[in-house]
User: Fold Flavodoxin from Sporosarcina thermotolerans.
Amino acid sequence: MVSFLIAYASWSGNTEEVAEIVEETLLSEGLDVTVHRIGNGPIPNPRQFDAMIIGSFTWDKGATPDKVKDFVADISYKPENVYVFGTGDTQFGGDELFCHAADKLKRFYESKYEPLKIEQSPRGIQEKKVIEWAKGVHQHWQHLHALKC
Ligand SMILES: Cc1cc2nc3c(=O)[nH]c(=O)nc-3n(C[C@H](O)[C@H](O)[C@H](O)COP(=O)(O)O)c2cc1C
Assistant:
């Protein structure tokens, strides 16, 4: 079974909600999904999964939270198939800094898929966007995998 790791950091719950919707969507597509809250418990080994999805909120003028930086450093290599999502708020620096941590993670991991950016909580009108993105991630992975076979 294809296995995905979702590793996310959340302070006030928005990014956690996105992670939950992504998890539900991928489970409904028949994938094996493991969720890791960054900073809680032992760090999973991305090598044991077919792909990793990393989610983060953005802090202090476009900053990536220290927990997330530590997680990236602790993994100590760049997994190949990485997908990125983030939550943020445009009132903290407009479009330029909105979900900046997600942009930086995408660049770092050279993710081939556009990161998902959610303003605050995904529940309500943005939920559909999360579901579509998660389905798109699965399709993207399937496409890449088919090319490799
Ligand atoms: C002090 C502070 C600084 C923030 N800075 C930014 C920022 O630079 N860019 C951004 O998009 N969001 C920023 N935010 C908004 C958070 O990223 C947003 O509320 C996010 O959804 C929180 O995620 P969480 O609920 O998972 O902790 C900031 C929030 C706080 C409280």
Summary: The longest strand covers residues 51-57. Residues 8 and 131 are 17 Å apart (CA to CA). The beta strands are 3-8, 32-37, 51-57, 82-88, 116-119. The chain has one domain: 3-148.
